[in-house]
Amino acid sequence: MSDIRDLRADTTVHAIPERPGHYRAALTEHWNGLGPQGGVLMALSMRAMMAEIDTDEFKPRSATTTFVNRVFAGELRAEVEVLRRSGSSAHARCSVSEAAGNGMGLETIATFGAGRPGPALLDASCPEVPAPQDSRLLDNSLDSTGTRTPPRFFDHFEVRTALGRLPWELEEKPADSARIARWFRYKKDQRNGAGVMDPLALLPIADTMPPALWQTVDVEGRFVGPSVDLTVHFLEDAASEWILSDATVAWAGESYARGENCLWADGRLVAIASQMMVLRPRT
Fold first, then answer.
1. Exposed (0-12), middle (13-18) or buried (19+): which is 121, by Cβ within 10 Å?
2. How far apart are CA 138 and CA 166, in angstroms?
């Protein structure tokens, strides 16, 4: 099994002094799905923006990443532009590319803001699913032929399926609803000294929607769903080590699908993500 990695350390960026607004990073293949997982790349881009904004007063509030070109693990470059900054918020964009060139890989535009007094509302309920200890553990090991079934990305989590199936679980029958609920726990804890999870650690969990669509299709017609884009709204701090991902797909057609993922921690809705994915046959 691969080494267990620390997301914060692996998405750390370093300023390039002679080029203001430019950062370098090195991402290993340990976070690969088809390539570096989209949520991990999005976290790296947002870490560069937070480094450029350089204040602890602003939290991530909203971000959208468009995945323009495939990015391979290795040396990366991030270019940040602060679009607007005030006393209570900042807006920025960041493009990420391989250091060797090959054009832009992805671009993220995000809003960061301080909290202020205002109305509060939660018109949603945490799904009633089995607790982590009562849910089915994802087996990350290699099979007898040395073939890896779950991508390496999953090595860094304990994942437990509370509702739904995965495509290699052939004993399970297709469901009536395109929905999967899974518990995720980082093996390298992403919470700070105060017990609050790094909000950027929610992004890789948010970008796990394709299996929701797998619930309703025959396993013989399996496919992959690379992200076209990913939008995440950050709602509340997460203090639990366990995050419940409740992913659904409401529409698919013309080789595209639209998914949504609600992330819960201790019964609190901490983030909502949505994305368009492109559907390609699994090879």
1. exposed
2. 9
CATH number at 271 reads: 2.40.160.210
Q: How many other C-beta atoms can be found within 10 angstroms of the C-beta atom of residue 105?
A: 21
Q: Is residue 121 part of a domain?
A: no
Dihedral of alpha carbons 67, 69, 75, 77, sign:
negative
Q: Is residue 130 part of a domain?
A: no
Could you list the pLDDT tens digit for every one of the 283 residues in the chain?
458 999 999 999 999 999 999 999 999 999 998 889 999 999 999 999 999 999 999 999 999 999 999 999 999 999 999 999 999 999 999 999 999 888 899 999 999 999 999 999 999 999 999 999 999 998 766 555 555 567 889 999 999 999 998 766 655 666 788 999 999 999 999 999 999 999 999 999 999 999 898 888 754 456 788 999 999 999 999 999 999 999 999 999 999 999 999 999 999 999 999 999 999 887 7
pTM of the model: 0.94
Structural domain harbouring 255? 7-115+136-281
Name the nearest CA neighbour of 248 among 212, 219, 211, 217: 212
Residues 43, 36: Cα–Cα separation, whole Å: 11
